[in-house]
Amino acid sequence: MFRVLVVDDEPAALEYICGIIEKKCPELVVAATASDGKEGLARFRECMPDLIISDVKMPVMDGLDMIKAIKDLGEEVPVLLLSGYQEFEYVRTALTCGAADYILKPVTPAGFLEAVKPTLGLLGQRVYEQRKELAKSMIMGEKVREEKMSRYFPEPAYYVAVIRENGLPRRFTDTREIELISEEEHTMFIYGRDEREALYLCPKGAVSREEFMDFFRAERDRKRGPHNFVTLVMMEDAVPRERLEAAVSGVYGEMNRRLSIGVTQTLLAGDGGGGERGGRPAKESEGAIYEAEVIKGVNRYLERRDYGKIFEELWNLIQKAEAIKCPQLRLERMVRQFEAQVQNYFNSRQDVLEEELMLEDAFYEAGTSRDLYESLKSILARYWKRDKETVKLDSPEFIQEIREFVEDNLSQELTVSTLCGEFNLSQSYLNLIFRKHGMESFNTYLRNARINRAKEIMKRNPHMFIKDVAMMVGYKDQFYFSRIFRAVTGMSPSEYPGRK
Description:
Layout: E1 2-7, H1 11-24, E2 28-34, H2 37-47, E3 51-55, H3 63-72, E4 79-83, H4 88-96, E5 101-104, H5 109-139, H6 146-152, E6 157-165, E7 180-181, E8 189-192, E9 197-203, H7 209-223, E10 230-234, E11 239-240, H8 244-258, E12 265-268, H9 284-304, H10 307-323, H11 328-346, H12 352-365, H13 369-381, H14 396-408, H15 416-423, H16 427-436, H17 442-460, H18 466-472, H19 478-489
Parallel strand pairs: 1-2, 1-3, 3-4, 4-5, 10-12
Antiparallel strand pairs: 6-9, 6-10, 6-11, 7-8, 8-9
Helix pairs in contact: 2-3, 5-8, 9-10, 9-11, 10-13, 12-13, 12-16, 18-19
């Protein structure tokens, strides 16, 4: 609900406006009232409302001066002015100073609702964006102003959990996927740095601790499949709002430290692991010893030109990493050292950015250890000119063939893995092909193709249920489809033009 400050010097008018809000506007709640602009400014500082409804002419401080004073505080809050026809020039000035709109007197319930409706849409979008920015700040461990936290996360305590499919988000390039946030009408706040992730902030009063934990274990099992892995990190108990920033930063820190390619695990943030938490990651010393052995082996096989043994050594490295639950970040370091040995031996001068993009894709797309191996194998094979996939990279006809296959199979469970199997490509090379032709990553292309098809379906069939539209474009989860749709188009499916 959005908090409203109502300001009017006439007690009867003040009571009348508050009555309309209480009876006709379920999205609004009167947080405070004031009898003039000066008192209104003081109440504004106290309750930080989302919306101000104010009379134009008042004693002590009028509506226009109050708007200017609020703007001087650096706050952007929509103001709806109550005015008569004779005050229109005054209102015109107020609109140039930041007032959102005006409501003509005498005010009727219908006229009030009509005037408030556009502002409610703006407030919803503002909450949407502000919560996203707060979530990003908390994940990064940045300090958030207490008044912002209390405004956009008003509950006294929250359960916190993050669940992620497959590897960590891309970190070194600007090819990240879209961020997702839940629809604002849902009790539980859900945010994701990309399409594969969901951070849940659930008010303690909404569910019990047992229900919260059971829900996420069920989500973990639902998302887990033969071609992917899932990492779930959660706080064991609800945390007070004043500790919410630290809790969010904590679950993400645990995710970054412990996520291991190919390993589905549940981790409780900050308690040392063990039990269902999946054990501890490999010790640094153990990893360093194994790392040195791998590098020594690679050099030996390079001297012999025994490329099959190099691939075997790579596979052994990845299998060992999975067995000891080696964190992705540490495995990436070992793989980069592995590749550097090959580069140095062949005195390679490959494009640095292209190499980085391919390595990031390999870890980002890998749903299993075998997926990672196949992608890394195709990258290494380029150094001794045995990768036959490269002949296809500059063929527009091949790209068109991929596009046609995607368009024909949008309603299916189409993934990077299934497409790579269909066209006998590695995941890294699939994205490289798209980039070679100046296109976005394949995941971005697939997502946009699905959303464009959904828009076409809704235009032709405005009465069709959202869940049916979602199924027709390959999304089994209606809620997830709505999150994707809103992130791409800026509106929910139900708000799309033409919907009935």
